[in-house]
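Course assignment 3, question 2. Fill in each field.
Student: A.L.
Task: Predict the tertiary structure for the chain below.
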Amino acid sequence: MKNLKSVLSLVVVITVSVNAFAQETPVYASANTNDKEKKEKEAVKSEATTESVKEEETEPTFTLSGSIDTYFHSSFGYRNGGTVAPSTSFADLKGFSLGMVNLIAAYSGEKVGFVGDVVFGPRGQAAVFGTASGQAIINQAYAYYKFNDKVTLNLGQFNTFLGYEVISPAVNFHYSTSYLFSWGPFNHTGARFDYTGESGFVAKVAVMNPTDIVEFNPVNTYTLGLQLGKTSDAGGVWLNFLYGDQDGKFDEDDGSLQPGDASAGSLFQGDITLGYNVGEKFYIGLNTSYQTVAAGQSVAVGGAIEDAGGDPSSFFGVALYPKVTLSETFALGLRAEYFAIKNYHLPLFGLDNEGNGNVMEFTLSGNYKVGGLTFIPELRVDMTSENSFNKKFEAVDKKILPTLNLAAVYKF
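Answer field:
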């Protein structure tokens, strides 16, 4: 989990001393668009052409695709030692900055195939942080086997199926990312069964390492994942769930334990994502998610392992994504998000004396497309319930942070 990054870093030290394209193009709520011309062309295909396409699809294919992105970021007067970006992932380096190079190799056969997805650059390193080796370049690496037209087994490392936004900027409409995306899961390593049923029903069931621990499992606990969804030509809705202990249990025989060491309890996250085209020009998306982590274990004086006790910590958030297509080359979209922290769940911004706080962020973005290139001008404002930001070397005494991003994303 991205909110367990500090824990993962400790695990890596002990052990060694954060959706691109799957076998079929995945359906993303954020990527749903109304392509009237394409639908009309498909509707008039002859039966002979359709049969020819079906025959070609049975032949194994190898594809190479990906994207590159770069951007300019400014927080206006918030610089020279002050706050330069919100506490969300990516788009957080000031001035002219690099995102990442993303290369995706995929082999698709009638029954079997693989996806090898690598990332280079600051965005890629921030996305794949839970690696023991420190390589931080493998975004996805999995093989799959199709039992039949409905059931597929995926084995390896794959992007999360929770949430509305994804790692790849070529799929997201907004260049900066939400709090919900940034502090949910990025990647999983494990076994996942995908089911595609009748009338647009889809499902996923997975057994995985703890979230974002991608190369192997050093903590000996596992996380369960589940998705239930319903899709149509207009869009879809997905219910997503995660459950499992993310940092393992203490072992009494571990001589490295010290009084005061603490381990978190099991994590549960429930997530709803939807996106629909409403008419020819207007689209609406939504993501809401609740994550809670129970109190776990602690080490007492003398080395005894005890139940930590206390209340669980949590976050809750909801984000709306309205978008209007103004022409064949330009669209305008808004992200309006509310994100709340309880009981010191995440140290992202200012919290009150009980460890509670919230933020509202509004991001207005344009997408101007020229061939494979998309220009994304973006204005964002974050407003917190407690003082969270500072200008220059002043004290943290601001509740509002405006930022500007001018991004270019090329997809091939």
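Instructor remarks: DSSP finds five helices and 19 strands in the chain. The domain at 2-24+67-411 is CATH 2.40.160.10 (Porin).
Grade: pending
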